[in-house]
């Protein structure tokens, strides 16, 4: 795990614990985990997250969903097309998510 992801995980932990995602709480979580907090990163993350609906962001994330029941395509050619579409869709979501997180710690 990179240091940057530790900050995001700290924010998620606070969210799931129904605690405010703010500078003081982020600092406490990081210190409790043995990670020396970087004040500027904490402030940037707290400011960025204050403008985000975390619950909606999690729902839109490319991971963490229960798999949907697949429908069988009529032919093998259609199956390949469908598989390619799904892969492209998944890659696009992944790229969007990474771009959003990259802006926080760029």
Shape: elongated
Summarize the main sheet: none
Helix/strand-derived class?
mainly alpha
Output mean pLDDT.
Answer: 80
Task: From the alpha carbons, calculate the radius of gyration and give it in angstroms.
Answer: 18 Å
From the structure provided, what is the oligomeric state, counting identical versus distinct chains? single chain
Amount of beta strand: under 5%
| Number of distinct helices | 5
CATH architecture of the largest domain: Orthogonal Bundle
Tell me roughly what share of residues is in helical segments: 55-70%
Can you write the helix and strand succession as a string? HHHHH
Number of domains: 2
Taking pLDDT < 50 over at least 5 consecutive residues as the criterion, the unreliable ranges are: 65-69
CATH class category of the largest domain: Mainly Alpha
Give the strand tally: 0
Distance between the termini: 17 Å
Please tell me about this protein's structure.
By secondary structure, the protein is mainly alpha-helical. The protein has two domains: about 1-60, Orthogonal Bundle (Arc Repressor Mutant, subunit A), CATH 1.10.10.1410; about 70-105. It contains five helices and no strands. The radius of gyration is 18 Å and the shape is elongated. The two termini are about 15 Å apart.
């Amino acid at each position: 795990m990179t240091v940057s992801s530790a900050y995001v995980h700290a924010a998620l932990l606070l969210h799931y614990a129904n605690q405010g995602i703010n500078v003081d709480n982020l600092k406490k979580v990081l210190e409790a985990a043995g990670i020396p907090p970087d004040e500027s990163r904490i402030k940037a993350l707290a400011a960025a997250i204050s403008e985000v609906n975390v619950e909606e962001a999690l729902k839109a994330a490319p991971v963490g969903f229960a798999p949907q029941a697949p429908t069988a395509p009529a032919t093998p050619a259609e199956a390949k097309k469908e598989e390619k579409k799904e892969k492209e869709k998944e890659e696009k979501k992944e790229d969007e998510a990474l771009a959003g997180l990259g802006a926080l710690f760029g």
